[in-house]
Amino acid sequence: MTRMPRALAVLLLAASAPAQVTYERIRDAAATPAEWLSYHGAYNAHRHSTLARINTANAATLRPAWIYQTRARHRFQATPIVADGVLYLSEPPSSVTAIDLHTRRPLWTYHRPIPENIAVCCGQVNRGVALLGDLVYIGTLDAHLVALDRRTGRVRWDVTVGDYRSAVTITPAPLIVRDKVIIGMAGAEYGVRGFLDAYDAATGRRVWRFWTVPGPGEPGNNTWSGDSWQRGGATTWVTGSYDPQANLVYWGTGNPGPDYIGDVRLGDNLYSDSVIALDASTGQLRWHFQFTPHDVNDMDSNQIPLLLDATFKGRPRKLMLFANRNAFYYILDRLTGEFLQATQFARQNWTLGLDPKGRPTPNPKAVPSLEGALVYPDDDGASNWFSPSYSPRTGLFYQNVRELGAIYFRTEAIFQPGQFYLGAGRRRIPGEEDGYGALRAWNALTGIRRWEFRLHTPPWAGILTTAGGLVFSSTMEGDFFALDDATGKLLWKFQAGGEVWSNPISYEFEGRQYIAIAAGSALIAFSLQGQ
Amino acid sequence: MTWLIGLVAFLAQDQTAAVQAGRRWYMTQCANCHGVNGDGGRGANLATPNLRHAASHQDLLNVIARGIPGTEMPRSALTATQVAEVAAFVKTLGQTPRHTPPGDAAAGERLFHQHCRRCHTLNGQGGPVGPDLSGLGGRSSPGFIRTSITAPDAATPRSYARIRATPQTGAPVQGVLLGEDTFSIRLYTLDGSLKSFWKSEARIEADRRSLMPALPLAPGDIDNLTAFLAAQ
Known about the structure:
The structure holds two protein chains of two kinds. Chain A is built from two helices and 38 strands.
């Protein structure tokens, strides 16, 4: 499609419906590396581009090719989507812009006014849109799912997912699965009850809802004392992955509420801090694995489940790779949820160790207390929502790591809709106030570290690997950089002039490869000098 | 007259009650980001006399109620009374009751001009290397001020710890940190000049010690300088 004669492409855009982004195109994204058709680039969430025009030999000549400035005042966390010569971008808080890649100019912007009285813990952000057919989908901060016409940005349908007045909000990109739009939600710092929804992509009708905190009579409800399940959190605020063969959707879940006080919610608190595997057609739970039972340290498991078929300990298996906020890198069997292995990738003291089934023994000294409890990692985690990457070239898993602890003082948690429901105050550890960060590369199957690239401060940027042997990521101070994927050697960097809270992507258009990243309030696309 | 004293006492008590109530809300709604002592973390440092987003009391109320767009500071569902209580508490953060220590402040001012002004700014005048001492008496006790004069390393603020940069070619440079990231560093040398380095081209060493020399002052002079600074 991207190599189509321009006149024909223009004709198509101007005169008729754009090419359809079918489910098959999204599923077979590896066959069309010039595009970036979904949040993770592919259902396996590897965030690996097989484009190789930009490579270790020429990365030093990367230069900005074009910049798009948003009008947003909020943090710009979007991963762009690229299809049929157009880049689709969410702008905070819940707007969408389509950009023509030939002229690099906007085609349209959908702007959604957001109510003033919205409660969000961590900024009015959005991480991206999804495409299917001739529609663009966005989950909005006021908890709606909206379908826009790809040609015009006009609303085709708009449905209510949750009540923002009770602090249900939407920040993640939707995930398209066949004819459905799967959308997660946020609000676990406000005592909401989490869920994951699927909507009919054509009509917006809700097809299923999975409550991540089971109600009375449902399996798992007895892991919550009293009526605490009603405020149980376990939200679904980062986009999951999908196995088309097994027809299973994999999704990470957030912290239980209140974040730091466990004695008002005795029990394991299922399915908080877990990964859940749902039948994509029905929303039925196939299996779950809880990383951090009865969490009192805000260890949301809203990270990305990466899917890998590999020979593990002599046996071909369908694996899930999960670098958890709690500082452990887990390998699970993704068909059964069986725990296979965990290795520690960052400093931690919340657990005294994991048993052979992966269940942790809590460290009583890491429970927030009146005297203050020293906890590693802090409540932003060793990892977080920003994406890791897996490269089939190297067999390495690449993760940006936050090395930072804090001291937690127990306070009250008072539930009132729209107010924080937390239960602790925090202090930095004297002498370690800033912590540090690192981009770490480890063997995806053994967890053994190959190299690290040290960062001055803990990062909030995701990672892209490419078949050109490159690893792209960014520091919080705006240095976007490329490393050699085998050695971690710095090959190129660019000062982007703003904090980077986003994941890079790659696409190819008119014969050139681009690397794009949201930095500050701008989207910057880089290509090789002289092109 | 008695009624007036009674009213003042009542208002003072009322204010104390507001601060106490505000502390409770602060601990449940604010302390996770701003720290239990208000000294920041994910959120801004509030233990400072000048809040960046709240120049006036009304601004402070607005920020607490409505949040700050473009940041992680959210709006809150607190009532107007609760917001006012939080504001009352926030205003106590980092504030030290003023004391008038012994010493001749006028003599201390002469010492300040002689020894301190080259590095420290006071009310808009002075050097860029050391901390700005404007309003110091409102946030630091005379004891702390005195210790900072006699033993500068005792409580060196993080951002004023000394840095030594040794470039591949050229002489080492010593100064205080202006900014640092993964790839570069910027510092002010003692004479206030800016030096910046790529970390790949210089060796950087840092410790938690101060660049401020222990001043050759007689005990009476220390009293005088302390008295002057405590009055700021």
